[in-house]
Each structure stands twice: as structure tokens, then as C-alpha cells.
Specification:
This protein is of the alpha+beta class. The protein is 28% helix and 26% strand. The protein has 2 domains: 18-178, Fructose-1,6-Bisphosphatase, Chain A, domain 1 (2-Layer Sandwich), CATH 3.30.540; 187-302, D-Maltodextrin-Binding Protein, domain 2, CATH 3.40.190. Bound molecules: 1,6-di-O-phosphono-beta-D-fructofuranose (FBP). Residues 57, 86, 104, 107-110, 191, 218-220, 236, 246 line the site of 1,6-di-O-phosphono-beta-D-fructofuranose. Mg(2+) 2 binds at residues 104, 107, 252. Its EC number is 3.1.3.11.
Length: 309
């Protein structure tokens, strides 16, 4: 993350609907306001429930707590008509607003057991779900690390300025720096078991591990935050056992693509920007690769055949 700036483009982008951008700002403020409560609720909610989410993953009490808190908070915002969460099979109709929010209430929640960082991710789309990443009018994440921070932007993807905020104990946002990926990347982190990586992806890893330092923590938001800070590449790639990878387009792929591209980097499913992947379902999965432009270009060159998406 580089030095402070004079705020060009902070706020509404020309090509996005101003009402949708205002709703996106309100959503990001509400997520920050909920963050201290979500964080304070973690210590007593580290147990698994006897349940699975729509993606077949075990659910922690903390996942459910954060999801219910965010639904109540975000559903009340003027302009928000739909709430969707990784923890719910279907979307929730919250009123007649045009904007839809898609939330991963606790990204990386399996890190609760080991007490490692995790986050809350939010994507704000101008339209119904599932939506294209090109319909985003804002995105952000809260990182529950040693301090609570938010990285966020509003506006159309091509116009967004991405900024880091400190989230205070009262849930207010204090502006920190504008985020731009450093020119000299230093870190990489890739999910999935190594024997499950396709050969072409494994060949790419052979290249980058000679140049970069491994940093992988198992929570996408924390791993992407390292890439935003130090430059590099994060991927949860296609696997032999899961050709669409693990992460979800609406809740994870699109918002991190928006943030990393807004910070001067690139995103890819292996062949194209994640923002150009066709949206086919709420819980659709997609291989996610984000980072410095040159590293993503090399990745796309290294992968043999990437299906149309
Ligand atoms: P959840 O949203 O269910 O926590 O799953 C997503 C995630 O935890 C990502 O944050 C992370 O990148 C990935 O799964 C880690 O998966 P793995 O445990 O296979 O490394």
C-alpha cells in the first residue's frame, strides 16, 4: 500500500448510477459499523454447528451470527433490494431497492479454530443476482487482524479508487491510504493441495517460487491483503478434483477482482478478467487469480486450455 494521495475519484464514478453508488457507500459504512460487533462475537462462537452451507462446508456459530447481523443491518438500507450470503441457499428480498448485496460474512472462518485472521467480504451490484462483475458499484472487505481495517471502493469497476480504512471500536471508518499495488512484487500464496494442481498451473508455480516468497494463510481476504501490501499473486486455482476451484464468483471472486483491479492489478479465471466471467448462479465457483499485472499475464500464458466462462 503506497503513500497518501489527494483523493482523486473518491466517491461516485461518472459511469455508475449515483443512487446505486450512494447505496454502496451506505452498505460499506454499515459493514464497518457491524465489524466491532462481529469481532466481539467471535470468542464464544468457535464451535461447529451440525450443519453445512450451500457449498457443502461446515458452518460455525460465528458464520451464522455474522450472517444474521449483516442481513438485519444491510437489508434496512434504502436502495438495497436483495441480500445474498454464502451461508444461505437463496437470496432474501429486502425491499424495492435496485441494488443487491452479496456477502461472505466470515471469509476464512476455519481460521477461528487456529486463531488466524479472517474477514468479511461484501460486493454491491446494481441489479439482480447473479450479476456480472461489471455491474459492481462497490466492494470491500473487513480484515480482522491485529487491528480491524477495511479496504473498499465505490463506483464502476473502471473508475473506482481503492482505499484502506481503520475501523474504530465504535465502527467508524478513519481514512488511511489509497491502495496501489507496489511495482516490485514479493509474495505469493496458492490454495489447494499441491498434488491436486493441474500440470500447467504447477509449471507456473515452479516459475514464481524462484522469484517470490510464499505467504499463505488460508483466508482469502488476509492473503489478498498481503498482495495489496507487498505486491505479488494470490490464487485459488482450478484443481484436478474441482475444475472450477473453490471460491465463489458472486461473494469472493468479483469483489476481490474489483479491489485488485482498482488498485492497478489484474484478476483472471485463467483466461479473462473475473469481472468478465458470465454469472450463471448465486453459488457458482470460479478459479481465482489476482495480483500484479505481469504475474497474471504470465499465468494466462502458462495455462493450456481454459474453458469459456
Ligand atoms: P469460507 O468462506 O467458507 O471460509 O471458505 C473460503 C476460504 O476459507 C478462503 O478464504 C480461502 O482462500 C480458502 O477457503 C482456503 O481453503 P483451503 O483450506 O483449501 O486452503
Amino acid at each position: 500500500m503506497e503513500g497518501a494521495d489527494s483523493d482523486p475519484g473518491d466517491g461516485a464514478a461518472d459511469s455508475a448510477d449515483p443512487d446505486a453508488v450512494a447505496a454502496a457507500e451506505a452498505v460499506l459504512e454499515a459493514v464497518a459499523a457491524a465489524a466491532p460487533e462481529i469481532r466481539a462475537g467471535l470468542p464464544g462462537r468457535r464451535r461447529y454447528l451440525d450443519d453445512e452451507n450451500p457449498s457443502g462446508e461446515d458452518v460455525l456459530a460465528a458464520d451464522v451470527y455474522a450472517d444474521e447481523l449483516l442481513e438485519a443491518t444491510l437489508g434496512d438500507i434504502d436502495g438495497v433490494g436483495t441480500y445474498a450470503s454464502e451461508e444461505r441457499e437463496s437470496t432474501v428480498d429486502t425491499g424495492d431497492g435496485a441494488v443487491s448485496v452479496a456477502v461472505d460474512p466470515l471469509d476464512g472462518s476455519s481460521n477461528l479454530e487456529s486463531n488466524n485472521p479472517m474477514g468479511t467480504v461484501v460486493a454491491i451490484y446494481d441489479g439482480d443476482l447473479p450479476a456480472s462483475g461489471r455491474d459492481l458499484v462497490g466492494a470491500g472487505f473487513v480484515l480482522y487482524g491485529p487491528v480491524t481495517t477495511m479496504v473498499a471502493g465505490v463506483g464502476a469497476p473502471a473508475d473506482a479508487t481503492i482505499r484502506e480504512y481503520l475501523v474504530t471500536g465504535e465502527g467508524d471508518r478513519e481514512k488511511l491510504e489509497r491502495i496501489e499495488l507496489p511495482d516490485d512484487p514479493t509474495v505469493y500464496g496458492f490454495g489447494g493441495r499441491v498434488p491436486d494442481w493441474p500440470d500447467d498451473f504447477a509449471a507456473y508455480v515452479d516459475e514464481v517460487e524462484d522469484e517470490l516468497k510464499l505467504r499463505y494463510g488460508g483466508a482469502m481476504i488476509a492473503d489478498v491483503s498481503q498482495v495489496l501490501s507487498y505486491g505479488g499473486v494470490f490464487a485459488y486455482p482450478a484443481l484436478e478434483s474441482a475444475p472450477d476451484g473453490k471460491l465463489r464468483l458472486q461473494f469472493e471472486g468479483n469483489p476481490v477482482a474489483y479491489l485488485v483491479e482498482g488498485a492497478g492489478g489484474r484478476s483472471s479465471d485463467g483466461a479473462r478478467s473475473l469481472l468478465d466471467v458470465e454469472a450463471t448462479g448465486i453459488h457458482q465457483r470460479v478459479p481465482v487469480h489476482v495480483g500484479n499485472e505481469a504475474l497474471i499475464e504470465r499465468l494466462e500464458a502458462a495455462l493450456d486450455e481454459v474453458p469459456a466462462r
